[in-house]
Every structure is written in C-alpha cells, then in structure tokens.
Amino acid sequence: MVGSRGPSDERGGGGERGERGERENSKREDDPVAEAFDARETSRTRWIGLVRLSVARLWRRATKTTSGRIVATIAAVAMTVALLVLVTGIALALADGGTTSENDATAQIMPESTDLLASVNGVEGARLGETNERAATIRDEPGVDHASPVLIEPVRLEHDSGEDNPQTVLLVGVVPDDESRTVAGLSTGALESGDPHYADGSYTGPQRGEIVLSSAAADRLDATQDDDLAVSSSQFEAMGVESPAITVTAVEEPSGESDDEDTPVALVHLSELQTFAGASEGELADQVLVWGEDDAAAVAANTAYPDETVDSPDTTHPSLLFDDGLAFVTSALALLVGVTICAAFVATTAGMTVNEDRRMLAVLESVGFPTHSRLAVVAISTQVLTLCGAVLGGVLGIVAIHGVNSAAAAGGAPGAVAQAHPLFVPYAVIIAFVAGLIAIPYPLVVAARTSVLAEVSR
C-alpha cells in the first residue's frame, strides 16, 4: 500500500536515530570545548552545594544546637572591626577639617606638609605665611572674584555682662567681601565687607567687633543676635590687655554634609583674630580660599603659593588619610592591629569549633566527601562567620563614632573627634575577609588530621 511502513522500516528508522545519537555522543566526547564546559558546570554545581551545606550547617548549629562558639566568633570579629572603624574615623577626623572645611570656594591652598611631631605634642602644625598680602595679590588676578585667608583658633568666649562661664568656640577668621560666601558652613553675609583692622599690615586699624555664630555655638553660649560677647579675660591677663568685645550679628545653621553640625563655630574678621591669637606676626593662616573661574583660581593660587598644595574643596573622603602623616600612621596601625587580633580570634575559635566537629567531618568522609571538599566546608564556614561579624562590626563602628562625637560635644570639645563614611562598612568587610584568609590555615590543619577510624574508635 502506498504510504504504508512496515515494522522493518520502523526498526530501520530507530536504528538510524540510535546510530546518529551514538555518533553525536562520540563527537561530544571528542570535543575538548564541550568537555571543558561540562567540567565547569560540574565544578560550579559542586561548589554551590558545598556553600549551601556550610551555610545550612551553621544555621542549624546557631538555632538548634550549641550556638556559643558561633556567637563568640561573630562577637570577637564584630568588636575588633568596630574598634578598627572607630580608630579609622578618628584618623579621618585628624586629616579633615570637619565643619571648618565646609565652603563654597573654587580652590583652596593648604600647607604642603604637616609636622607629625607637632601634632603629637599638641603644638600648632604647619601654617601659611604672608597670607593677607598674597590673598590681595590673588584678588587682583583676572578671573578671580575673591580670595581670603582662613585662620582657625579655639577661643573661650563669655557674655560681656560679667558672667564667669566661658565656653570654647572655634573662631574662623575670614576677609568678607560684598558677596555672601560660605566658610566653615556659615555665610559671611552678616560680616561687614573688608578687613580694616589689617591696615596694610600694621594691624592698627579700627576693629569691627562682629561675630557670626553657628546654632551650636549660640546654644553653648546661650547667646542670640545683638548680644555682646567677650574673649575670656584669662587669655589677656598675662599681656595686660583688655578683652575685646564683640557683637553677635547673626546666628545661622551650618550648611554642608559634614557630621560636625554640633561643633560650635563662629566667623570673625581675619585680622582681629590674628591679633589676639598671636598670628599677626607673619600674617599666618591655616589656608587660603579662592573664588572665581576654575582655571583662573587654580593658576592664581599656584602662582601665589607654588610650593603648597592647591586643590578643590570637597566633602570628607578616606583618601585624605594619605595626605596627613599622623592620620595615615594612626589608620595604618589600627589596620595592622585589627587584622592581627581578628585573625587570632578567628583562628582560635574556628580551630576549637573544628575540633568539636571531628565526628561530623568523619561522617562526611565516610559518605564519600573527598579531603578537599571537607576542607572547603571548613573554610567556607569560617569565612561566613567572619563576614557576618565584619558587617555587624562595621555598623557598630559607625554607631560608636556618633556616640564618641556626642560625648565629646557634651564634654566641651570644640569639634568632632571622629568622622564616619559609608565606605567604612565595605572596608570592614574586606579587612575581615583578609583576616579570615590568614586565620583559615589553622582550622584546616586540624580538619585534615581527622580520620574515620580515629573517630569510630572514640
């Protein structure tokens, strides 16, 4: 019959398909690319299984069996990492000016280096000289709108009414102009333009006696606009000079993204602060700020101070740690000590945990887990615990930074003791991961010495 197929035809067709399948399998076996792909898939599946086994085992131990060792490991790592983050935050605060660095300038000129021993001994660090004269030269350059030296001094202020309750405030000396500019997070608009007391370097001109308080400074001094304040008389008794009186012209909320909003800061005219701070000799200042076009401001700044650092103001960044000697040494020592202590804790607790889990490792060996798979379970478990502790420690460290700053502010500190940054958490995780890698060999050695026969005999 036309179109009909017999059994022999069906068998023949099936045989042909079978032969084609065998040929395809043979070709696949002979294809090195296909074999490598299969090997990668198998290896990936095996590692996923080992990770799932390790995490499930840790979860079971943490929720259903003895969890003391797990809690101890996570707590040890968390406390170590929290201290590392706290000390790093303190180092970052040393490198950064905090609220006093908040400004809207185009460029800033900073001393090229800071004396490490001066910072340690509490002596003033490096400052710029001839700042009033050179700032005037910068202002005359084309494309530059304004330039002002900035001097920062902690000063004790009190009410001029005679109340004997002086409070420490960070005074920031600036040269205001007709435009409202931001320095130390405060506007210069409430200060009268110019700096007449400078008087071409003689410091004999009239004093304005004006001050702009931040809200934190106003709260600390219990002062409002138009109140009269005086510099603590104890600073002038030795010189036999009457304390200068100053009037609050404005109380403002600090602008910017700094964590230092509780720092008591105030703006005054530069030459007046230089006079009673002893910085008039040499026209000293901590930095010079330049406003104007980007290129013009940078060129003018580099021309006036060719040997100093000129950069663009920015928010606090951990890279500042590399620009300050004391901050870098502090953070480096914290890193070294943190990694060492963290690795020691992890190695000890992980080794004790593996010693308790010898029977489990023997069971894995008896059901066919090769040595490298058993060691992988130990390594993965150790790193998972370490990373959990690192995340917790990073969060605790940032909380500790805010707590230390609050305590310091309550104790009368003129600025933040430590600075927090979002990069601290991933930094903590990376450091803990490295510490875990250093600690892993010890528990692996303990695990490698486990044998089925020894555990059965026990």
- Provide a count of the helices: 14
How big a fraction of the residues is strand? 5-15%
Order of helices and strands: HHHEHHEEEEEHEEEHEHEHHHHHH
Low-confidence parts, pLDDT < 50 over ≥5 residues?
1-14, 114-123
C-alpha end-to-end distance: 79 Å
Tell me, rounded to a whole number, the average pLDDT. 77
- State the major sheet: 6 strands, mixed, barrel
Query: Any idea how many domains?
Result: 2
Strand numbers in spatial order across the main sheet: 2-3-9-6-8-7
Q: What is the helix content? A: 40-55%
Q: How many E strands?
A: 11
Q: What Rg do the Cα atoms give?
A: 34 Å
**Class by SSE composition:** alpha+beta
The global form is: elongated
Please provide a written account of the structure:
By secondary structure, this protein is an alpha+beta fold. It has 2 domains: 73-92 and 328-457, no CATH class; 99-315, no CATH class. It has 14 helices and 11 strands. The protein has helices at 7-30, 32-63, 68-95, 116-121, 131-139, 215-221, 270-277, 294-304, 325-356, 358-366, 371-410, 424-439, 441-448, 452-457; strands at residues 107-110, 144-159, 167-174, 182-183, 186-187, 210-214, 228-231, 245-252, 265-269, 287-292, 309-311. A hairpin with a 2-residue loop joins β4 (182-183) and β5 (186-187). α9 (325-356) packs across α12, α11 crosses α12 (424-439) and α11 (371-410) packs antiparallel against α13. The longest helix has 40 residues, at 371-410. The protein is elongated, with a radius of gyration of 34 Å. The N and C termini lie far apart (79 Å). 38% of the residues are buried.
